[in-house]
From TrEMBL:
Residues 319-612 form the Protein kinase domain. Keywords: ATP-binding, Glycoprotein, Membrane, Nucleotide-binding, Signal, Transmembrane, Transmembrane helix. The keyword NADP does not apply. The lineage of its organism: Eukaryota, Viridiplantae, Streptophyta, Embryophyta, Tracheophyta. Pfam families: Pkinase (PF00069), WAK_assoc (PF14380). ATP binds at residue 347. This is LEAF RUST 10 DISEASE-RESISTANCE LOCUS RECEPTOR-LIKE PROTEIN KINASE-like 1.5. The chain crosses the membrane at residues 252-275. It comes from Punica granatum. Residues 1-25 form the signal peptide. InterPro entries: Kinase-like_dom_sf, Prot_kinase_dom, Protein_kinase_ATP_BS, WAK_assoc_C. It comes from the Eukaryota. Residues 597-617 are annotated as: Disordered.
């Protein structure tokens, strides 16, 4: 949390800002370690790589292989610097635009007008000007394709025009320095560098800097002043308080006092922020932490409506036991009827008594509650249970779902509705398998980030009156983060987490590695497919110890070619039906492979189930 305006923290920062020595304002600026052609870093005065330091006309941009300097808005590369003389060797650092003459590309490094150094401290060396003034073409002047390049023709006749300050000056007609190709000579001259000089004794700026350096100051200038007013950064500067002078023996004590005051101000600022935070948190002492969490996430997802505890209590007849339609480890499910007439299923997650033994259960219940709301509010599929609302109250956590009146798949296969198993024909079971597969495929491939259900069981698959299904109970679901190195659509992502799920359906690879992937749901779905084929429970202790789990039992039978011994007798195995049963059993066998990499993904499973269904019709 940022400190408020005019806080003690802000005041402390303000004090430190004004107490910083002025010399540090220039000398502490970042300067590259290498700045050719200078052997020292930072470069010697009057050069500077830091804005506001040195001489305003000698600001350079450090780079390799050559640093650059700007003179009259023209950039030059610094080829050589002689520390024993006030001279530089410069070369234009970019190409120049020319007319459409055939020679333009060849001589693109020759400027299209005279180079002017006027207004700057620089001037061409006398030797350079003399050389240009004595330069002449040998024999007849170059024609340069007629008259299409007037500027180049002028340079051929008067090479000194290259530098405005060089003339041309009258000189006798001599051909001692003649060149067959003047433009090519000028091009090479520019590439090798032109020598410029400056007078370090000229002007008040240089004189002021010498006086500043003699007092161990740093020369700089005020860039906001059009005249580039000279500034001397040192401990004697007018912006530095007198008690900061190095010659003052008490300056260490004063600095120590300022440090102590600053620390006290920071401490006061921290105390004030803690006090304000506690006062804010205590303003609503009775607010439910779960409500606070969900309220913070309302802007991140389209959460369903919020019901009051009284509304849902009334809709279930005060949680009448005769209306209980399901039970779970952390609560019960009741049939409710909302004021608008809708029949709903109300899951009541109980608030255990505040004992140490129940602390873990309470934390898991609240986490499952929030997780299910956030997951279900972000998905929409005809084969997934829809969440119509929720209630977070100290008396209990309540979730309001679609009411699916025909029980669960487990009820039909093994439980209270097993007397109606004759309704589970092979075609119905195959349709159920396809719908479950499409729901899981949606979670893995149509939601971003993908969702791992983590508890695909026949008890969490609800059957409607027309035998269509809806997958529910997302309390254990997790979002799968997508890794950067993912390069295959067959892998939706993974997350490290402690294994959770229902015995008999839990992926053994996930149990051993703690790495949750979408293939863990595929394993659980494979067990459900085996239930549809066999009608057997996922875990049955009446079977041999090595075959308690249906997956182990089925794999053993399939490997020994004895699939017929585990097929549900309610399924008629004649002709095409037998082929479809074997195809689904083979698919389930692949889904429950011990290694996750050997399993198909949910998209492949859904496609294979649709193929089996189409072939069985």
């Amino acid at each position: 949390m940022a400190p408020p305006p005019h806080s003690p923290f802000s005041a402390a920062i303000l004090i430190l800002h004004f107490l910083l020595p002025a010399a540090a304002a220039c000398s502490l600026k970042a300067v590259p370690a290498v700045c050719p052609p200078f052997s020292s870093s930072p470069p010697p005065y009057p050069f500077s790589a830091s804005p506001g330091c040195g001489h305003p006309s000698f600001q350079i941009n450090c780079s390799t292989p050559h640093s650059t300097i700007s003179i009259n808005h023209l950039s030059f590369s610094l080829l050589h610097f002689d520390p024993n003389s006030s001279s530089l060797l410069l070369s234009p650092s970019h190409s120049f635009s020319h007319s459409n003459c055939s020679s333009s590309s060849r001589f693109s490094s020759i400027p299209s007008r005279s180079i002017s150094l006027s207004g700057s401290p620089f001037r061409p060396s006398d030797a350079l000007c003399s050389r240009l003034n004595n330069l002449r073409p040998c024999g007849s002047p170059n024609s340069l394709n007629g008259s299409c390049c007037p500027w180049e023709c002028k340079l051929i006749h008067s090479p000194a025009l290259l530098l405005q300050e060089c003339g041309p000056t009258p000189s006798p007609a001599t051909y001692q320095g003649c060149q067959g190709d003047v433009l090519d000579f000028l091009k090479k001259l520019l590439e090798m560098g032109i020598e410029v000089e400056w007078d370090s004794s000229d002007g008040a700026y240089f004189g002021s800097c010498r006086a500043c350096q003699s007092s161990k100051g740093v020369c700089g200038y005020n860039s906001s002043d059009p005249k580039k007013q000279f500034l001397c950064f040192n401990f004697q500067s007018r912006v530095s308080p007198p008690w900061m002078h190095r010659q003052d023996p008490s300056h260490i004590a004063m600095l120590g006092l300022i440090f102590v005051i600053t620390c006290l101000l920071l401490l006061v600022s921290v105390v004030v922020m803690i006090f304000r935070s506690r006062r804010f948190n205590s303003s609503r002492p009775d607010e439910d932490p779960t409500s606070i969490f969900l309220r913070r996430h309302r802007s991140l997802s389209l959460l369903p409506p919020v019901f009051t505890y009284e509304e849902l209590e009334l809709s279930t007849g005060h949680f009448d036991q005769s209306r209980k339609i399901g039970d779970g480890g952390f609560g019960s499910v009741y049939l409710g009827r909302l004021p608008d007439g809708r029949a709903v299923a109300v899951k009541h997650l109980h608030r255990q008594r505040p004992t140490a033994a129940a602390a873990a259960a309470r934390a898991f219940s609240a986490k499952s509650f929030c997780n299910e709301i956030l997951i279900l509010s972000s998905i929409d599929h005809p084969n997934l249970v829809k969440l119509h609302g929720y209630c977070s109250d100290p008396r209990g956590l309540l979730l309001v779902y679609d009411y699916v009146p025909n029980g669960t798949l487990a009820d039909h296969l093994h439980g209270r509705l097993r007397h109606r198993r004759q309704l589970l024909t092979w075609q119905v079971r195959l349709d159920m398998a396809v719908q479950i597969g499409l729901a899981i495929e949606y979670l893995h491939f149509s939601v971003s980030p993908p969702i791992a259900h983590r508890d695909i069981t026949s008890s969490n698959i609800f059957v409607e009156g027309d035998m269509r299904i809806k997958v529910g109970d997302f309390g254990l679901s997790r979002l799968l983060e997508i890794p950067d190195e993912m390069n295959s659509s067959s892998s939706c992502g993974s997350v490290w987490t402690g294994p959770q799920g229902t015995p008999g359906y839990l992926d053994p690879d996930y149990h051993h590695s703690f790495l949750l992937t979408e293939k863990s749901d595929v394993y659980s779905f494979g067990v459900v497919l085996l239930e549809l084929v066999s009608g057997l429970r996922a875990v049955d202790q009446s079977r041999d110890k090595r075959e308690f789990a249906l997956a182990d039992f089925a794999v053993s039978k399939i490997q020994m070619g004895m699939l017929h011994q585990m097929v549900d007798p309610m399924i008629a195995l004649d002709g095409a039906l037998s082929e479809g049963v074997h195809a689904m059993a083979e698919l389930a066998f692949r889904c429950v492979a011990a290694e996750k990499d050997d399993r198909p993904d949910s998209r492949e499973v859904a496609e294979e189930l649709k193929r089996i269904r189409n072939k069985s019709r």
